[in-house]
Specification:
Length: about 325
């Protein structure tokens, strides 16, 4: 088996992922000691490559592998891959669906939902001023978390939030009918969903249909004084609409992990905005230790004609 590892759109970006490349290579060679592993750009004969593992690969590079049987995205989202205009429409794509990553993202959402609902910043301000003033607790009861996107990760987030006693509703493109979760589906029910939401969590895949979905019209349908947590992709958000919604107090806060330009430029207004928390795309970081065995196993199953859960539906784009 010959596997190519393509990470980073260019040499500079690749360099920033040295640690990731090293870890993935180690995991691959642990599992398959006789593996012929080629790391872009040292690919050797392109016709040898059976399987390519990619994260933000150099655009156009994959079309150079004439015998490629499968592509494995080293991430849950595959927009970085399928937006390559030169990608073959025939090659199956696998993505990471890792319970460990799901735990990370669940913990991230719990942290910031609780930060918001329990008003951690309020207590920090009070401490700075040495104010000891009891008041009734900030309660969950009247807050509703609306999750956009009820795939593998969105569903786990909903379950965890419900477990700690929060009201949760969900919205996705098609009806899910999960027991115990009120879910809304499609464009027709979108505004209904928003009108019941205090904290909006975006877990959507990035597709032409979801690009810029976090915009003025969306924000204006939310309950008063709402909050946004975006863990999808930066391109889901119209940045100027967010700034306007915060200015007008339609939204009181935003927690953002993804940005249309990453790394977020140092002069970007989000960095210093008092009502925005920025994290550098860390809500769920691919863990080679678990992701690599999963992708390798799925690749082998696919070659044997067996069903795999993490196969991307190329028509849907996720
Ligand atoms: C991270 O953003 C991922 O898609 O896995």
């Amino acid at each position: 088996m010959v596997i190519a590892l393509l990470i980073g759109r260019d040499e500079k970006e690749k360099k920033s992922y040295d640690w990731f490349i090293e870890d993935i290579s180690r995991q691959l060679l642990n599992l398959e000691p006789s593996l012929d592993l080629r790391i872009w750009p040292d690919i050797g004969k392109t016709a040898d490559i059976d399987f390519a593992l990619v994260w933000r690969h150099p655009l156009g590079a994959l079309k150079k592998f004439p015998h490629l049987k499968c592509i494995g995205s080293l991430s849950a989202g595959v927009d970085h891959l399928i937006t390559d205009p030169e990608l073959s429409k025939e090659t199956p794509i696998l993505r990471v669906m890792d319970p460990h990553m799901a735990n990370d993202i669940v913990q991230y959402v719990l942290t910031y939902v609780l930060h918001d609902v329990k008003r951690v910043s309020h207590w920090e301000q009070r401490q700075k001023k040495k104010i000891w003033a009891k008041q009734p607790p900030f309660n969950f009861g009247d807050k509703t978390i609306g999750i956009m996107g009820l795939g593998f990760l969105g569903k786990k987030i909903a379950e965890a939030l419900q477990f700690i006693g929060l009201n949760v509703i969900g919205w996705s493109s098609s009806r899910k009918n999960f027991p115990h979760l009120k879910d809304f589906a499609g464009k027709e029910e979108f505004f209904d969903f928003l009108s019941q939401t205090d904290i909006l969590v975006c877990m959507l895949p990035l597709t032409p249909a979801t690009k810029n979905i976090l915009n003025h019209d969306t924000f204006s349908q939310l309950k008063p004084n709402a909050c946004l947590i975006n863990l999808g992709r930066g391109e889901h958000l119209l940045e100027k609409d967010l700034l306007a919604a915060l200015d007008s107090k339609k939204l009181h806060h935003a927690y953002l992990d993804v940005f249309s330009e990453e790394p977020l430029p140092s002069d970007h207004p989000f960095w210093e905005h008092p009502d925005i928390h920025v994290t550098p795309h860390v809500a769920s970081v691919t863990q080679p230790k678990t992701a690599v065995p999963q992708l390798l196993k799925a690749y082998k199953k696919l070659l044997n004609g067996e069903a795999v859960v993490n196969l991307v539906d190329l028509k849907k784009g996720y």
